[in-house]
Write a structure and sequence with these properties.
The structure holds two protein chains of two kinds.
Chain A: E1 2-6, H1 9-16, E2 21-27, H2 30-33, H3 39-56, E3 61-67, H4 73-77, H5 80-85, E4 88-91, H6 95-104, E5 109-112, E6 114-124, E7 127-132, H7 148-151, E8 168-172, E9 178-180, H8 182-193
Parallel strand pairs in A: 2-3, 2-4, 4-5
Antiparallel strand pairs in A: 1-6, 6-7, 8-9
Chain B: H1 11-17, E1 22-27, H2 36-45, E2 51-54, H3 66-75, E3 80-85, H4 91-103, E4 108-112, H5 133-146, E5 162-167, H6 174-187, E6 191-196, H7 200-212, E7 220-225, H8 231-240, H9 248-255, H10 261-279, E8 284-289, H11 297-304
Parallel strand pairs in B: 1-2, 1-8, 2-3, 3-4, 4-5, 5-6, 6-7, 7-8
Helix pairs in contact in B: 2-3, 5-6, 6-7, 8-9, 10-11
The chains are: A alpha/beta, B alpha/beta.
């Protein structure tokens, strides 16, 4: 799923500026599951903004709402009334939802209240790990179901670099926590599968034109179009 | 060998091809537009090493680029081994730079992945990693041997390159390390320099695997040596440098010596002992002396190790 983290309150306040009618719009899909931008979190942010406005002696009207999915036109229709009354909408959806909202109600001001950070999975309660970068050319069939593009800090295609030690990457995470070496994991998985020879298969350079390097991507499913 | 048999005809290639024990050194370019640094270092090393690695933004810190510094070294009579990392350039830049380096007379190239950006002075930069080091070796080999760009298009004049790679016998998983060298040979590497060796038993264990696969006959292996100035450096490398394996006995040996001229002398003595021991290992074709910001130590080490005069191969 797509994960996001809320921006610091000061940054959100700067985006709101002197606008008087503020709508905090949550999204009840991915960002709700990662406890960042669902209806509940929208309600909390609205309350924080109200308290802050009161402390600062500013008169601001702050409301909150949530769409089932901000990234689909029909769900945006369901929150249209509230959006149209606001001077500024603080979207708590991922970057897709924020842009859908901004496009649907253009030129109304829509501001991001979160930073979308990854395509991740919940490893345990309240911990998410990045698992995909949507590179458009999936090779994990050759790497034991473990993606080296996103899980190797250097996106190596042909095995571990010299910094791999005790199953760990030479890089540590932003909180200085240990990161597993993707290639050590891949090697163990391939051994368990009895497919060690794949470690030494020729892995040509990746075709990054299928990723964002090729420009904004578009997917059309002709067979799924209405007749 | 005649001139036409060589891949690039560099001094390093000639010495290794003739079966002579090679000595390479290392020069880090400066962190400013100071043109005197490489000149000074080159003058120190000239005559004591067969070629010198010119590092490419080592430890992900911005410096004068390896092509300019490599050219400067060569203008001062010292053959360059230009390092090239995949961290800072995509495949267009890496091909353009090797064509440029070739036009300027640089013949030895060392293909590296590069230290991660998080270790350097611009951790917020976007890491490129379009190719990895193995893809890079193959790309340069195809440019040289097939006259082809990575995209498959042909070129009129191919760059003449002696292609190097690095390998770390002390990285994990250990069982993959010799096999990874094999993959680099298959991609097209002609010579290889190892990470700094302090744990000689482990290096020998790795070489045993290398020989079992016959790899020492397919690639020229240069064993990496870093002379220690004192116990501080030993401890630092033991704890903080990724991929380094510094045994406690080395740290203890340096710890027993007073910091200064005495510890410098001990560090050089240790380097000489290690060179002599590594030179006896079957399959080791030379040493790569990485005296980081201590180039002045190299002449004495090379001389004491009995590696002078450096051979001249026509």
């Amino acid at each position: 799923m797509i994960t996001a983290e809320r921006k610091p309150l000061d940054e959100i306040l700067a985006l709101v500026g002197d606008k008087k009618k503020v709508l905090v719009a949550g999204c009840d899909t991915c960002v709700a599951i990662c406890l960042t931008g669902g209806e509940k979190e929208a309600e909390i942010l609205a309350a924080e903004l109200r308290i802050k406005a009161e402390q600062d002696g500013r008169e601001v009207e702050i409301e909150h709402t949530a769409a089932i999915r901000q990234c689909e036109w029909e769900y945006l229709d369901m929150i249209a009334d509230k959006v149209e009354q606001a001077d500024v909408v603080l979207s708590m959806a991922c970057g897709i939802g924020i842009q859908s909202l901004a496009e649907k109600f253009a030129p109304r001001l829509v501001m991001p209240a979160v930073n979308t950070n990854m395509l991740g999975m919940p490893q345990e309660h309240a911990v998410w790990l990045e698992r995909c970068v949507a590179c458009g050319e999936c090779r994990i069939g050759l790497t034991g179901g473990i993606c080296p593009v996103v899980r190797c800090s250097k996106s190596l295609m042909n095995g571990p670099c010299g910094g791999s030690h005790d199953g760990l990457c030479e890089v540590t995470g932003p909180e200085k926590e240990e990161i597993e070496c993707a290639w050590a994991l891949i090697w163990e998985r391939l051994k368990a599968q009895g497919r060690e020879e794949l470690m030494f298969a020729d892995r040509p350079p990746k075709d990054w034109s299928k990723s964002s390097s090729g420009g904004p991507r578009k997917m059309v499913r002709e067979e799924a179009k209405p007749v | 060998m005649t001139a036409t048999d060589y891949k690039a005809g560099s001094n390093l290639e000639k010495i290794l091809s003739a079966g002579k024990f090679a000595v390479t050194g290392e020069c880090g370019p400066p962190k400013s537009a100071d043109g005197s640094v490489i000149e000074t270092k080159a003058k120190i090393l000239k005559g004591f090493v067969d070629a010198v690695n010119i590092t490419d933004n080592q430890t992900a810190v911005v410096r004068v680029c390896s092509m300019a510094s490599g050219l400067q070294a060569q203008q001062n009579g010292l053959e360059a081994i230009m390092q090239m990392t995949c961290r800072d350039r995509n495949r267009l830049a890496m091909q353009a730079d090797i064509l440029g380096a070739s036009v300027l007379g640089i013949k030895n190239i060392l293909c590296l992945t590069g230290d991660h950006l998080s270790f350097g002075n611009h951790p917020q930069a976007k890491g490129v990693h379009d190719l990895d080091a193995i893809n890079l070796i193959k790309m340069y080999k195809d440019m040289r041997d097939e006259k082809k760009f990575q995209c498959g298009e042909e070129m009129d004049v191919a760059p003449q390159l002696y292609i190097g790679c690095a390998e770390n016998p002390f990285g994990d998983p250990f069982e993959l390390r010799a096999l990874r060298l094999k993959k680099k040979i298959e991609a097209g590497a002609d010579f290889m320099q190892t990470q700094c060796i302090f744990n000689i038993p482990k290096f020998k264990e790795w070489m045993k695997e290398v020989r079992a696969l016959g790899l020492h006959k397919e690639i020229k292996i240069l064993a990496g040596i870093t002379p220690l100035k004192g116990v501080g450096g030993a401890r630092y490398m033991q704890k903080f440098v990724p991929g380094m394996d510094v045994p406690q006995e080395i740290v203890d040996r340096m710890a027993g010596i007073e910091k200064g001229p005495a510890s410098h002398a001990e560090g050089k003595k240790l380097a000489v002992e290690m060179i002599k021991e590594l030179a006896e290992v079957e399959g080791v074709a030379g040493v790569h002396i990485m005296a980081v910001e201590w180039e002045e130590a190299v002449p004495e080490i090379v001389e004491t190790a009995g590696l002078l005069p450096r051979p001249a191969v026509a």
